[in-house]
Prior knowledge:
Layout: E1 41-42, H1 54-73, H2 78-82, H3 87-91, E2 107-114, H4 117-124, E3 130-135, E4 140-145, E5 148-153, E6 160-163, E7 170-177, E8 189-195, E9 198-205, E10 213-222, E11 227-232, E12 238-242, E13 247-253, E14 265-270, E15 292-298, E16 303-308, E17 313-317, E18 324-329, H5 332-343, E19 356-361, E20 370-376, E21 381-385, E22 394-396, E23 411-413, E24 416-422, E25 431-438, H6 442-449, E26 461-468, E27 472-477, H7 500-503, E28 510-516, E29 519-525, H8 528-538, H9 542-550, H10 552-563, H11 571-582, E30 588-592, E31 595-599, H12 602-619, E32 624-626, E33 637-639, H13 643-662, H14 672-707, H15 710-720, H16 722-729, H17 733-738, H18 740-759, H19 765-774, H20 781-798, H21 802-818, H22 827-836, H23 840-854, H24 859-865, H25 875-901, H26 906-921, H27 926-938, H28 953-960, H29 970-977, H30 981-993, H31 1000-1019, H32 1025-1049, H33 1056-1068, H34 1073-1081, H35 1087-1097, H36 1102-1116, H37 1122-1137, H38 1145-1158, H39 1168-1175, H40 1180-1192, H41 1197-1214, H42 1223-1236, H43 1244-1262
Antiparallel strand pairs: 1-31, 2-29, 3-4, 4-5, 5-6, 7-8, 8-9, 9-10, 11-12, 12-13, 13-14, 15-16, 16-17, 17-18, 19-20, 20-21, 21-22, 23-24, 24-25, 25-26, 27-28, 28-29, 30-31, 32-33
Helix pairs in contact: 1-12, 1-14, 6-9, 8-9, 8-10, 9-10, 10-11, 10-12, 12-13, 12-14, 13-14, 15-16, 15-18, 18-20, 20-21, 21-23, 22-23, 22-25, 23-25, 24-25, 25-26, 25-27, 29-30, 30-31, 31-32, 32-33, 32-34, 32-35, 34-35, 35-36, 36-37, 36-38, 37-39, 38-40, 40-41, 41-42, 41-43, 42-43
Family: Belongs to the non-repetitive/WGA-negative nucleoporin family.
Domain Nucleoporin Nup133/Nup155-like C-terminal: 601-1235
Domain Nucleoporin Nup133/Nup155-like N-terminal: 112-517
Amino acid sequence: xxxxxxxxxxxxxxxxxxxxxxxxxxxxxxxxxxxxxxxxxxxxxxxxxxxxxxxxxxxxxxxxxxxxxxxxxxxxxxxxxxxxxxxxxxxxxxxxxxxxxxxxxxxxxxxxxxxxxxxxxxxxxxxxxxxxxxxxxxxxxxxxxxxxxxxxxxxxxxxxxxxxxxxxxxxxxxxxxxxxxxxxxxxxxxxxxxxxxxxxxxxxxxxxxxxxxxxxxxxxxxxxxxxxxxxxxxxxxxxxxxxxxxxxxxxxxxxxxxxxxxxxxxxxxxxxxxxxxxxxxxxxxxxxxxxxxxxxxxxxxxxxxxxxxxxxxxxxxxxxxxxxxxxxxxxxxxxxxxxxxxxxxxxxxxxxxxxxxxxxxxxxxxxxxxxxxxxxxxxxxxxxxxxxxxxxxxxxxxxxxxxxxxxxxxxxxxxxxxxxxxxxxxxxxxxxxxxxxxxxxxxxxxxxxxxxxxxxxxxxxxxxxxxxxxxxxxxxxxxxxxxxxxxxxxxxxxxxxxxxxxxxxxxxxxxxxxxxxxxxxxxxxxxxxxxxxxxxxxxxxxxxxxxxxxxxxxxxxxxxxxxxxxxxxxxxxxxxxxxxxxxxxxxxxxxxxxxxxxxxxxxxxxxxxxxxxxxxxxxxxxxxxxxxxxxxxxxxxxxxxxxxxxxxxxxxxxxxxxxxxxxxxxxxxxxxxxxxxxxxxxxxxxxxxxxxxxxxxxxxxxxxxxxxxxxxxxxxxxxxxxxxxxxxxxxxxxxxxxxxxxxxxxxxxxxxxxxxxxxxxxxxxxxxxxxxxxxxxxxxxxxxxxxxxxxxxxxxxxxxxxxxxxxxxxxxxxxxxxxxxxxxxxxxxxxxxxxxxxxxxxxxxxxxxxxxxxxxxxxxxxxxxxxxxxxxxxxxxxxxxxxxxxxxxxxxxxxxxxxxxxxxxxxxxxxxxxxxxxxxxxxxxxxxxxxxxxxxxxxxxxxxxxxxxxxxxxxxxxxxxxxxxxxxxxxxxxxxxxxxxxxxxxxxxxxxxxxxxxxxxxxxxxxxxxxxxxxxxxxxxxxxxxxxxxxxxxxxxxxxxxxxxxxxxxxxxxxxxxxxxxxxxxxxxxxxxxxxxxxxxxxxxxxxxxxxxxxxxxxxxxxxxxxxxxxxxxxxxxxxxxxxxxxxxxxxxxxxxxxxxxxxxxxxxxxxxxxxxxxxxxxxxxxxxxxxxxxxxxxxxxxxxxxxxxxxxxxxxxxxxxxxxxxxxxxxxxxxxxxxxxxxxxxxxxxxxxxxxxxxxxxxxxxxxxxxxxxxxxxxxxx
Length: 1263
């Protein structure tokens, strides 16, 4: 097909196959299919611990949501696909139809409705004026004939309303949304009728699809000019284009009832003229005035676009009350001409070729970045980018038609174009409709079939033409099928409408209304689904055509959708659909760098996609919504999706279930990776079927609740269960269907429904049967037992006969025990009611049984043993069992409290308490025993644990007693009470040495106790010498550590913060002597602890010992009485460290003591230091020998006299202890001293010394 001369050929090149006939491509690793959501997926892993229902459901949920991702991928922003840099997208914007067959025509004129005879006669009668148009919002065509207005119901074809209350000729008519602040809710639209000088507003209500009511409002205003165009926003703003080429806004308000209009105000404001032109009537204006030629209004985005006489396009923001210019562009005609010249060897077109004849808004559902499309009379289009409105628009060439000259009735809606051309070759008025529609499957086919064509992401369009035997006045799209009106569930998260492929399962074919002088024509835009259905009935290669143009998965999905329609009776069509499914490509296992993955068959992905599309209207919607609270009514929970929506989704799902049951998917027997692929697909298909069944039951469940007044059920339940209100208000349908949380919420609602029935004294057997039949997944057999048990409970609560009450409670416990884990959601409530009836056996037994039934494999215990990782899946079992145990403990606590408060019958209260504890203690549930023991410790009754003789108490104490302060004494006391003293000693030793927040004092205490217990064990024949020796050594070192701590505490040069930091380290654990010396005693100069370390280690370090002794003596001598202080210190040190390596006498210490005493001078009594050492336990002989050596080595008279005094004291004392020193040694020194001092002058000190020597000499003489 050729276009006008010079524009080139856009058809298929000779010998080149068109896009529409490309066949299947087999998968290869180089295919760009890997980049799509329908590419290879990780293999599903099935674990033994998975929930049998919700495990597969979670995997099926992944497949469904993968389908949503796939639908999003093929639903691009219009801006993206018309601006892709590709030669194809510009040079070949139109592509061949999928097939020349009629079945694959994308647009068809389906029917024609002629005008009613009466209306036809009115139009043919000789009148001054006649105008017509469409009000598709109310399914009416309008005809203004002189001063009369006719509204024709074209859906009926016969009825029409007549309005003839205007005195003047009607120039224009418009229908706009009514303002909510002016009209009552019944008035949804306002009919605006303009004559040359006056505008009148008529209220419009539509009680039903066939009924239309018009209401006079008394809202009128004078007009400065005749109005030619009327349009309004969704919020009620109204704009009009005047014959004088000015743009006006009509604003109306009312201060009282619109019906009487006493305070009605209508104002028409000129938005474009300035100066006197604003107030002068049009008669004074120039016929050649520049101004607005046309305008387009986006009622949703509140964007107004005007086209001016000189070609300028202006974008005006009319949000709220704004009227703000956002952009202008005045080079459009030049752009058109320049591009035309570029493509036609620089030939310039006639100036009339590019006359702008139509403009339409591009909705935000198509692109948030594009805002306007403008049509030239020769079919060129210009798309305006709102982000760069002042820049060159995106130009798109016209369809390949010769001599194309379009009329102003050319129409655009959501990507579809009706280009209207008058056929001047016909003798009667005839129009040619050039219908341009997007190639809806181009992107999907590229992704699924693995095409490498870089132009796949560009928009390509189909072009078809139809001849209409009349003049076309206007065109509109049926609002019901307009993508602009799609609900949020059929949009992407950014508000873009889903592509036709993605939404076709949930919407009808798009329908267009064409109003002509001969009547109404209806055009239907075929969905891909319609093409397949029609093609399979007439064309042998229909499946191949659809698969190539839309994709293999899309072909399978459409086949399943068609097959699921119960209305299909055509056996040939059924057979063709079956053939498509059975011949779909097999699944494949792909071996890649990251291991194995699976490429599911189109059959599998088609099922997942179909299921996803059927569920889409509810999947991401809330199950319930909260109504707004009013003064007279509180907020209520109502259905989040309308009942009609739920019924429609459920009907489709039921059809799909029937189809999958009647047409099972094939399975191939194979080995290796082929077998793995089929196994994976088969498991996934079964999971999808489970999700399908679950969704049907979920809808049945919610609809059933709705029949029983869901608002009341929820309100009643939420009063007792506060968190349920929050959980339910946030519950989405996908979670109700696929999550355990959804199941739990559903069970609570079922319980509320049953309680409602019981509360109304109605039987529940029939309701239970209905629940199991319609939604068995949500109501298990155990649930039914639970409801019957509820009846028994209520009988017990209402009975005054103790025997009858006991029987009813026993029956309730029996039934509840049969219900298994189904009682868990109500275990707290049930046991509370049992306690209120003083039925301890029931409360304790049910709590323990429920815990066991919840976790028969004891996974909670394994979770505890494995460290309680927060992400461990077994955590839920642990938490659920804890809830059950809490109910048992509450029962035991009740009996404890009763015993505490008993005054008269204490024995009976104690007996009941003991029976309850006996029932609990006899449980073989290890986890419960640990919970019970924890509770008793927490309530300061840990000593009671020592009385238990259970198989679990020792293990419990072993695992907990050494870490927690309240429990650490329990284990060793337990052993001691049992006579196991050696075990008690070892438990005490373990307490002392384990790293924990325990204080050092406590550690020393436990070591001492351990030593005592070990010695007690030895006394009864359980001797462990090595252990006793080890404990003894540990205790000695710990005492050294204590001494170091005391040294730090009394350190004069450390701040409180520094002391606390060091003491914290000392309290952390028991340390070794070397560490105590190196890290504490030496760096902090803790002299006495150093001596204690030397003593305990039995290690002699002479230089250290000497230095420490000197420092200690020097420190002691500081003060007003240095001699007395040093003497006391000497006594203390010798008593503590002698005999040991910390006090080596003759070699070091005694000499150090005498040398330090010498430095203090002779102000003290003679021999004071010697007496101190002797008092400290130093042998007299050791002192004598050091004094003799020091006297002989003295270098000064002062030193010699000091040691002589000490010798005199020793000699004087020797008189009473003559065995300590040999007589000859004393005699030799005494005689020498007396001889030397015989003639010497003496002071009092020397005389006293000489007297002591003489006494010793006298004693020696007697011997």
